[in-house]
Design brief:
The protein is of the alpha+beta class. It contains three helices and five strands, in the order E-E-H-E-H-H-E-E. It has a five-stranded mixed sheet. The chain is globular, with a radius of gyration of 12 Å. The relative contact order is 0.31.
């Protein structure tokens, strides 16, 4: 089971064991990671699960879809090249040790 390291906006780190084929959002919610709101429950319709993903794992994270890209334009926190909706990123074994930064709620 890959371990994902979530870093909150205030610098608190939490290591979460993530099940294969669940989304990063689901893993975060199950572990009670603060800052992942997920109002749309993973439908890529709210951007309240916006996170910044470690660019070293870009190949594991995959390509961003058109709907996700459009939704990120409405995220409360600044969109960067590392921004993704955590509901749209599926956990794979190669993500073991990946860092995901959770932006501050605004």
């Amino acid at each position: 089971m890959p371990k994902i390291i979530f870093v909150s906006a205030d610098g608190v780190t939490r290591e979460v064991a993530a099940g294969a084929d669940q989304s990063i959002m689901q893993a975060a919610l199950a572990a009670g990671v603060p800052g992942i709101v997920a109002e749309c429950n993973g439908a890529a319709a709210c951007a309240t699960c916006h996170c910044y993903f470690d660019p070293a794992y870009a190949a594991c994270v995959g390509e961003i879809g058109e709907q996700e890209s459009e939704m990120l334009d409405f995220a409360a926190s600044e969109r960067t090249a590392d921004s993704r909706l955590s509901c749209q990123v599926r956990v794979v074994a190669e993500m073991d040790g990946m860092t995901v930064r959770v932006p501050a709620l605004q």
